[in-house]
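Chain A, query sequence.
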Amino acid sequence: MRILPAFALLLLAVPAAAQTRSPPPAALGTLPAPIVTRDGVVAVPYGAPNLDEDAAPADFLRAARQSLAAGRITEAMEALERAQTRALTRDVRPSRAGIPSDQSLVAAIAAAQQALAVGDRLATIGKIDEALRLGE
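Chain A, predicted structure.
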């Protein structure tokens, strides 16, 4: 019969021990940890580009290029994603809504995102320049 009270105490102690081992919650507004790319480049997280939400895709592409040149890789990623979102805004029939866009601008932005994902900054800048020529 002594096993039952000992088992009950063990059941109560395990959740309490687990709660004390968890890390404290981070303060609101803290930035995530740095990102290390495949070639060892450390990307320090930055906020979104300082542009109006309704800016044109070319504006976000220029912001991505400037952020990349300044070494703010995550800010460049965000600007590329926003440029692609602006370029994807289109009117289509509901039956074609699931079909990916075949716009050359969207494809050029995707190529820039792929180059940035593997850490090739020079190729990314070249792809951004190509997208800028298509978008203007």
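Residues 27-31 have pLDDT under 50 and may be disordered. The helical segments are 3-21, 57-69, 73-88, 104-117, 121-135.
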